[in-house]
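[audit] Reproducing an earlier prediction to check determinism. Same input, same settings, fresh worker. If the tokens differ from the archived copy the diff job will pick it up downstream; this log only records the rerun itself.
[audit] input (130 residues):
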Amino acid sequence: MSQDDDTETSTPSRLGRVLFAGGLAVLAIRNLTNLDGRIAYADAKGVPAADRLVPLSSGLLLGGSLGIGFWKRPKLSAGSIAAFFIGVTPVMHDFWAVDSDSRDEELTSFLQNLTLLGAAIAFFKRASQD
């Protein structure tokens, strides 16, 4: 692999950014278009000020995903995405604290978010090298 293949403008890097950012942008938009449902779920999980935190955190995710997709302010963007997952994952997907009927679904969501957090950290690291 040449050095050019490892830059943020290479095809694999661009494809990875678009897939990662596109998926997260869709999730953020879904959150923002169903705010009442998301706020109610966050309230049920005991999130304080859910009516403010849900739109704020969804905006954080949307802004970060757009930044990664267009590779604009990538450290800030990846940091925003990481902050979203660090804040949201243990509160909203607390598989250890739910009944056995909900445990598998919450564990799956927890692990998916953990995986996305790992990708955000990798993008942050990559942006730090630019």
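[audit] rerun output stored. Observation attached for the diff report: Residues 8-129 form one domain.
[audit] end
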